[in-house]
Amino acid sequence: MTKVLFVCLGNICRSPMAEMVFKDMVNKKGLSNEFFIDSAATSTEAVGEDIYYGTINILKEKQVPFTNHISRQITKQDYNKFDYIIGMEQRNINNILRIIGEDKQNKVFRLLDFSENPRDIADPWYTGDFETTYNDIEEGCRKFLEYILKEK
Ligand code: 4NP
Fold it and tell me: Ligand 1 pocket check: which of 8, 47, 73, 132 to mutate, most ligand atoms within 8 Å of Cβ?
């Protein structure tokens, strides 16, 4: 079982989008039983909230299934529970390390560091551009899954 935690600032836009996109990719490969996939926030800003409507709209448009969601903040215990902790931008990585401490087992990555063009994923909460965020997340999740399947 490979356990993956996607992390962003609020856990209502990018990380639940990555969670749903990655679950869909894994499901389409018939591998859902081999993965546990979740998402979390670095901040407490939106704790308890469901996925933001802008993310829900783009998931519907792209025909990516989604479930109910309750935003939660990442905990120190998540570091032991998960194999991969994947941030959306460098700021998330810095905040993840502040909460979990040192990344002794090399589990913390930035999603688009798996792509040929490593970069941050912009926050659509501020940009309003859910299409660009979706395209970046789709690219990152696809490359990350290729990486995991090679490692296995
Ligand atoms: P996310 O976007 O990190 O992609 O979930 C945000 C959502 C909410 C807030 C910040 C970022 N907020 O401050 O409430």
Answer: 8
